[in-house]
Write a structure and sequence with these properties.
Elements: H1 20-49, H2 51-68, E1 72-81, H3 86-96, H4 100-105, E2 110-114, E3 121-127, E4 130-136, H5 142-149, E5 160-165, E6 171-181, E7 187-196, H6 201-228
Antiparallel strand pairs: 1-7, 2-3, 3-4, 4-5, 5-6, 6-7
Helix pairs in contact: 3-6
Length: 229
């Protein structure tokens, strides 16, 4: 009995050997469409639209926090950036938190990133399959000293750290980052997230993917703006 050879379906531009070109077209279009919708709805409109989803996200985080009983899990992803130094990017990023459009553009699943004067930064974004609203405390640079005193591990991520909390102040995890200069004028970024231990590995991995998307977007934008003067 002979079997017909199977051919994997694909549609690419003639001459291309991967999907990357059309994927790039789709990504550009998706970003443009989302930017338009977010601009039309405005922050208040988006938050009102997502009221039920945000409530489900808070219940998701509280459930994991209760079941984890103080135990945590951590993951780290590493990016290698060229064309801008860590110092210049750090300066750019510090100022960019005041530019809501830039913050939102970092990742398609950023629904709101803003801070009222004197308050913590509020971030509304996807975690696992939930829309979660949480707040970032000011960065704690003591973690950098901790890194210098002992080798960093996934359980104790390197760099400055910010705890993430719910609206009532309940701490649900933390994020950490470290930007190290490289000899070629670029830098290495190590980005870590710490969540309640009962969160599945896929939840941590998904957030590391989120980091990779948003920081690549921000680093490339920073490099372009610094180069333009």
């Amino acid at each position: 009995m002979t079997t017909e050879p199977t051919t994997q379906q694909s549609v690419r531009l003639a001459g291309d050997d991967s999907d990357s070109t059309i994927d790039g077209y789709e990504l550009f279009s998706a970003r443009r469409a989302l930017a338009l919708l977010k601009d039309k709805l405005g922050r208040d409109g988006i938050l009102e639209l997502l009221t039920d989803e945000i409530a489900e996200g808070e219940a998701f985080l509280r459930d994991h926090l209760a079941r984890s009983a103080g135990e945590e899990t951590t993951g780290t992803t590493t990016l290698r950036a060229r064309g801008i130094t860590a110092a210049r990017f750090g300066q750019w990023l510090g100022a960019a938190f005041a530019r809501e459009d830039v913050m939102l553009a970092g990742n398609p699943e950023h629904y709101s990133i803003h801070a009222e004067p004197g308050q913590n930064v509020n971030i509304v974004e996807t975690l696992d399959r939930y829309v979660c609203s949480f707040f970032m405390r000011p960065w704690d640079d003591s973690a950098i000293v901790e890194r210098e005193l002992s080798a960093a591990t996934d359980e104790r991520p390197a760099g400055r750290r910010s705890h993430i909390l719910l609206a009532d102040g309940t701490v649900v995890g933390s994020i950490a980052n470290a930007f190290d200069e490289e000899e070629d004028g670029g830098f290495t970024a190590r980005l870590s997230v710490t969540l309640p231990a009962t969160c599945a590995p896929e939840v941590v991995e998904q957030h590391l993917e989120h980091f990779a998307v948003e920081f690549r977007t921000w680093i490339l934008r920073a490099a372009a703006e610094v180069a333009a003067g």
